[in-house]
From TrEMBL:
Its cofactor is pyridoxal 5'-phosphate. It comes from Amycolatopsis iheyensis. The modification N6-(pyridoxal phosphate)lysine is found at residue 293. The keyword Transferase does not apply. Keywords: Antibiotic biosynthesis, Decarboxylase, Lyase, Pyridoxal phosphate. SUPFAM superfamilies: PLP-dependent transferases (SSF53383). InterPro entries: Aromatic_deC (IPR010977), PyrdxlP-dep_de-COase (IPR002129), PyrdxlP-dep_Trfase (IPR015424), PyrdxlP-dep_Trfase_major (IPR015421), PyrdxlP-dep_Trfase_small (IPR015422). This is Pyridoxal-dependent decarboxylase. The keyword Lyase applies. One of its GO terms (molecular function) is pyridoxal phosphate binding.
Length: 457
């Protein structure tokens, strides 16, 4: 054994304790850590030859890289849609690495059963029925890829071909309809070989990002064959919701696969006050939910659901002698793009056991209340203009007098108190503040608004 490895093995408890101490200090200071640390030029170090051992690596990380890490797990990081990591999910994530299980196969451990239990809990949480099965993937984008890959196979089924065997050429051009598709839809269509040009946008309701269901019906009426409809349960800019129940009702007249992007908006199902926004989600053929957003588990973690596990198996099955027979309950390596997989379910399992439905409902409702608080402050300020109602947990706004939004985003990032991301909405550059971190409080909103007033002045 290499001497550095032997040394670390013999002193492993001390090494882990040193890492725990560093992590504890980082978490203790998270509320005051800069939400963003805009990086300067970085000069890569040469590849180590003999190595410095675990303690040496820890010291090198602390000196070279740790100061430049953003407080993205903290309460005032409002960019993208970013959760933190609840205490229980963090403990679960540490144990995920410790036990280092590969839940791809059920031949050697109970890890797959833990994942199946967790997926079942999540399906219940989002109001999905027993006809929906699911699996963990890396994030919303890979969940989208998985769902649309199953949808592509469904189109092949309608055409009498197996796309998984014969390829996209046997299927020919496809049509994907959506009102306000997330950019990951285009990425998935490119990745899957259906092509970005397959996407046709459908008019949205006036002043909304929600699709006009009557216009969607007209688009479906004009088609020659089946299609994929991508609906939104929470758009990125304004958290607008398509009328999922009305869209699903169109299936009585038209032949289409319903894919719903519920990456973070799906969490509205946890609160009685907002659950009506996702009525009809249970009618979807495939559903995207991103857990490292509002479930507040560490990156990377998402789940995909589908009603057609048979088609999913047809797309992703991996037939190899060393993997054994594919049984009635397929191993996860036959259901997702990955073979080897991290046990992403464990942090989610820990957080669900620790805080239950009620604890996660409280996080959702608090985040919505805080977003509305910021929205009210912005709406009352002469310096800012609220561009859309605060429907859930995202505030979309712009400087009242116009100006360089990118420069404002940079100034906010350099201040370090908070971090926001830019966007375009209604034909103009805008900013968006997304509340999804379990740590965020009303005091954080006060500080964030103070920064906004300061930078715009």
């Amino acid at each position: 054994m290499h001497p550095r490895l032997a040394e670390d093995l013999n002193s492993l408890p001390e090494l882990l304790d040193a890492a725990r101490k560093l992590a504890g200090e980082a978490l203790a200071g998270l509320s005051e850590r800069a939400a963003a640390v805009p990086p300067g030029p970085a000069v890569p170090a040469p590849l180590p030859l003999e190595g410095a051992g675990g303690r040496g690596a820890l010291e090198a990380f602390t000196q070279r890289w740790e100061p430049g890490f953003a407080g993205s797990a903290g309460p005032r990081y409002l960019g993208f849609v970013t959760g933190g990591a609840t205490p229980a999910s963090l403990a679960g994530d540490w144990l995920t690495a410790t036990y280092d299980q590969n839940p791809a196969s059920g031949m050697d451990s109970s890890a797959q059963d833990l994942e199946r239990e967790t997926v079942g809990w999540l399906a219940e949480l989002f109001g999905l029925g027993a006809d929906h099965s699911g699996a963990f993937v890396t994030g919303a984008t890979m969940s989208t890829v998985t769902g649309l890959a199953i949808a592509r196979e469904w189109l092949g089924e309608r055409a009498g071909v197996r796309v998984s065997d014969e390829g996209n050429a046997a299927l020919g051009p496809v049509t994907v309809l959506s009102g306000s598709p997330h950019s990951s839809i285009l990425k998935a269509l490119s990745f899957l070989g259906m092509g970005r040009s397959a996407l046709r946008t459908v008019p949205v309701l006036p002043g909304r990002e929600a699709v006009d269901v009557a216009k969607l019906a007209e688009a479906l009426e004009a088609l020659d064959g089946p299609a994929i409809v991508v609906a939104n349960a929470g758009t990125v800019n304004t958290v607008d919701f398509d009328d999922l129940r009305a869209i699903a009702a169109l299936k009585q007249r038209f032949d289409f696969w319903l894919h719903v992007d519920a990456a973070f908006g799906g969490f509205a199902a946890l609160s009685p006050g907002y659950a009506a926004l996702v009525e009809g989600l249970d009618q979807a053929d495939s559903v995207v939910v991103d857990l490292h957003k509002w479930l507040n588990v560490p990156y990377d973690s998402a789940v995909q659901f589908t009603r057609r596990r048979d088609l999913q198996l047809r797309v992703f099955s991996n037939n190899a002698a060393y993997l054994g027979e594919i049984g009635a309950t397929p191993d996860f390596l036959h259901l997702t793009p990955e073979n080897s997989r991290r046990l992403r379910a464990l942090p989610a399992w820990f957080s669900l056991v620790a805080y239950g439905r009620d604890g996660h409902r409280e996080i959702v409702e608090r985040c919505v209340a805080l977003a509305r608080d910021l929205g009210t402050r912005i709406d009352a300020s002469p310096h800012w203009r609220l561009l859309a109602p605060v429907r859930l947990n995202v505030v979309c706004f712009a400087p009242a007098a116009g100006g360089d939004v990118d420069a404002l985003v940079q100034a906010i990032a350099e201040d370090g108190t908070t971090f926001l991301t830019p966007t375009w909405y209604d034909g103009r550059p805008a900013l968006r503040a997304a509340f999804s971190n379990w740590r965020t409080t009303a005091a954080d909103v006060e500080r964030v608004f103070g920064v906004l007033e300061r930078v715009v002045g």
